[in-house]
Design brief:
It is a single chain. The protein has about 120 residues and is mainly alpha-helical. It has one domain. The longest helix is centred in the middle third of the chain and has 29 residues.
Length: about 120
């Protein structure tokens, strides 16, 4: 999953991420037949399902955004790479505990401001 998600930040990464997504989907379906016979395989399959869902959601988001703006492939790759770099940079500066709502989005800057006051 991490490999697929990080592939989006590289040139032609969408193709790589889509091929990884297809591979994970095939593996999940192939192992499904062994679930009743192998102890704890159902737990692994559940984790695989969650990872597959994350990959599919990321691929879907990039595909939708790309079709909305009708950008050339190279330009779209540059925008995705820049956005991922910005998010990674912001994430590396996080300090303290996260404060957020029920949606899982955390506002670390707000937390820092509250602790200073």
């Amino acid at each position: 999953m991490r490999f697929a998600i990080s592939s989006f930040s590289r040139r032609a990464g969408r193709l790589k991420a889509n091929s990884v997504c297809a591979f994970v989907r095939d593996c999940k379906s192939d192992f499904e037949q062994f679930t009743p016979h192998v102890r704890d395989l159902s737990k692994k399959q559940a984790v695989t399902s969650e990872s597959l869902e994350k990959i599919e959601n990321a691929a879907y988001a990039v595909a939708i955004r790309g079709s909305e703006y009708d950008l050339p492939v190279d330009m779209l790759d540059d925008i995705v790479a820049q956005c991922i770099a910005d998010v990674s940079k912001k994430g590396s500066n996080r300090k303290g505990n996260a404060v957020g709502g029920n949606d899982g989005d955390y506002d670390y800057d707000t937390y820092a401001d509250r602790t200073k006051a």
